[in-house]
Amino acid sequence: MSQHSKNNYVISADIGGTHITAAVVDLEKKIIIEDTRTRISVDSQGAATEILENWSSALIQACQKFGSPAHQVALAMPGPFDYKNGISLIKDLHKYEAIYGLNIKSYLSEVLKIEAEDVLFRNDAEAFLQGEVLAGAGTGFRKVLGITLGTGFGSALSFDGITKDLNLGSEPYQDSIADDYFSTRWFLRQYYELTGLSVSGVSGLTSMVKHNPVVTDIFEEFTANLSLFLKHIIRAEKPDVIVIGGNIAKASNLFLNGLIDQLAGYVENVKIRMALLGEDAALMGAAAGFATKAGRGFSFAPVKDTNFNTQS
């Protein structure tokens, strides 16, 4: 055992569609140890060996920066995934298909030389929302609906501090599923269909918005689709607030006001807040699993309530 207590430190990681971010979380002080933060690009359509080596490399680098071996590892992972047993079930989602059926828990246990029971997985949308409820835009609300807009469409619901994945991305929508409409690939496909041109990402679209009315049209269609989809879950769950995160949320100036206006036509008293913590939300939310496992409460110091995009 190292000089650091096993129970107080977690190597936490957020698995994205194009990267992994890892850092050490101090459960006792309830902080992310900044100088351990490590980010590595990952080709989610690459070979299994390449993907797993990038993931383990980020975790090892965070450990090295911390100056201590990892004894507990928590990962915020996109689904579908067997979170208890650590087995990837991702297929037909244009990402991480090479690791389908692989036991990631066993792999990381062997590479990091820790017990398999000390490797925890949590749905990434669930971890994101747990972090925002603990320390960000969801703090102080009893019932929070969280959605993440990025490589995929994530969703979770938090009630009295207990957060669960909703998996709305798999719900039917129009001629497919919600994940196909509320993710980066929808934007890229729409732009290609309308212009015959390719663009590297949503950030590429936003950079053209002032000079290209097609981009405005695409965001208006996205807004209309998202409001239509969300109205049913909002009516059913009646959340106190909706928290929106993910890389597409960085373009909120192009859809937030329209989303608020359109949702107001379907449900009363809609309150929307943009996520505050970025990747830190998922890192915090994943690490919190060890505090829950140990039977102790876990909350970070709340972020000051500033720069919210809200509507009551």
UniProtKB/TrEMBL annotation:
InterPro entries: ATPase_NBD, ROK
Alphabetized SUPFAM superfamilies for the sequence: Actin-like ATPase domain
Cleaved signal peptide residues: none
Pfam families: ROK (PF00480)
Family (UniProt): Belongs to the ROK (NagC/XylR) family.
PANTHER family (UniProt xref): BIFUNCTIONAL UDP-N-ACETYLGLUCOSAMINE 2-EPIMERASE_N-ACETYLMANNOSAMINE KINASE (PTHR18964:SF149), ROK (REPRESSOR, ORF, KINASE) FAMILY (PTHR18964)
Protein's name according to its UniProt entry: ROK family protein
Species of the source: Mucilaginibacter rubeus
Record lineage: Bacteria, Pseudomonadati, Bacteroidota, Sphingobacteriia, Sphingobacteriales
